Amino acid sequence: MAKTIVVLGSFVADVAFRMGRLPAWGETVLGSGLALGPGGKGSNQAVAAARALQGSGARVRIASRVGDDAFGQIAHATWEAAGVEASLVDVGGVPTGSAAILIDEVSGNNAIVVVPGACYTLTPEDVDRMAEAIRGAKVLLVQLELPLATVQRGLEIARAAGVTTILNPAPAVPLSEEMLSLVDYLTPNESEAALLTGLPVETVEQAEVCARALLERGPKVVILTLGERGAIACARGGEPVFVPAFHAGPVVETTGAGDAFCGGFAAALLEGKALSEAVRFGCATAGISVTRAGTAPSMPQRAEIEALLRG
Ligand code: RIB
Q1: What SS3 class is residue 11?
Q2: How confident is the model at residue 2 (pLDDT cuts 50, 70, 90)?
Q3: pLDDT tens digit string along 90-117?
Q4: Closest CA to 305 of 109, 54, 57, 2
Q5: What pLDDT score was predicted for residue 209?
Q6: pLDDT tens digit string along 25-63?
Q7: Contact, 204 vs 242, CB < 8 A?
Q8: By the 8 A CB rule, do 82 and 108 touch?
Q9: What is the mean pLDDT of residues 234-242?
Q10: Is ligand 1 within 6 A of the CB of residue 253?
Q11: What H or E segment, with its residue span, contains residue 62?
Q12: Is the pLDDT of residue 125 over 70?
């Protein structure tokens, strides 16, 4: 049977505005561009993994819910084009969600508001109905744009079956030790790690301290992504692994860079790469994604990632 990643997560439509600077409350500024496209951390990560695994024979399946509407159609078209299998996606109920993304046209940095919509109605019972698919996977990849109880049920099913679990704790909310102890690989960025621990994460040294504090709470490995600096991975009882960021060209938009990392990292783990190689693969995937506009559309193909890794 083909090696499989199941991504239990969100789809929303991204409405992205580019501007010279963010407006203050009560202020209006003129923007320079608008784009509507596929988003949602779960879907973005599934697309990143599928593109990274292109031609390898591996499967990427998304487990989610979208509305019976135009945004839901964008979801299905996106998955079909990327080779993501969508048979675990329910359609109907409430409308598909959306995200308002404000992008600084100079730095490419962003601020996001997500209204998850249909995917946020997925319940633990819905996940129970997907249990066989999760048990049949090698990797389960989850984020936090679904209800916590739903995410936890997915992790429980995966852990009980010996399936490797990756939790990208985004957007960050406080998490129980019960949930964190179901996680093999936890992949926060700096602000998410700071929220989860209450510790500062401004330097690489602080990132290591923070990652070690998170390890104490349950995950087997913490990979703290550091934006333009790269990522640091800490495993219990092991030396930290620092991977510098890959520079693949001028930064256009950083939205979805964390999703690119997670999708690429999950793909590399699925293929049996060692931790340091898998983190390099994730960083290379993210390094290319930030040179392009959009989230799912910015995810690179396998050949591009391999070329960047070869240097
Ligand atoms: O991680 C980026 C994603 O976060 C965007 O695509 C947006 O939809 C939000 O979910």
Answers
A1: coil
A2: confident
A3: 998 999 999 999 999 988 888 999 999 9
A4: 54
A5: 97
A6: 999 999 999 999 999 999 999 999 999 999 999 999 999
A7: yes
A8: no
A9: 93
A10: no
A11: strand 59-66
A12: yes
CA dihedral sign of residues 24, 198, 289, 148? negative
Q: How far apart are CA 76 and CA 266, in angstroms?
A: 22
What is the residue extent of each domain of the chain? 4-21+33-310
pLDDT at residue 1 greater than cutoff 70 = no
Q: For residue 177, report the distance from its CA to the centre of ligand 1, in Å.
A: 26
Which atom of ligand 1 is nearest the CA belonging to 258? 1
**Residue 21 and residue 58: Cα distance in Å, rounded?**
42
3-state helix, strand, coil in the chain (%, to 5): 40, 25, 35
Q: From the CB of 282, is ligand 1 less than 6 Å away? A: no
A 10 A CB-CB count for 41 gives 30
Neighbours of 237 (CB within 10 A): 6
CB distance 150 to ligand 1 below 6 Å: no
Q: What single-letter amino acid sits at 241?
A: V
pLDDT at residue 203 tops 70: yes
Our answer to whether residue 259 is catalytic in this structure is: yes
Ligand 1 atom with minimal separation from the 259 CA: 1
Tokens of 255: 């939205």
CATH class (in words) of the domain with range 4-21+33-310: alpha beta
Phi then psi for residue 184, to 5 deg, are -80, -50
40 alpha carbon – ligand 1 mean position (Å) = 4
Q: Is the CB of 144 under 6 A from ligand 1?
A: no
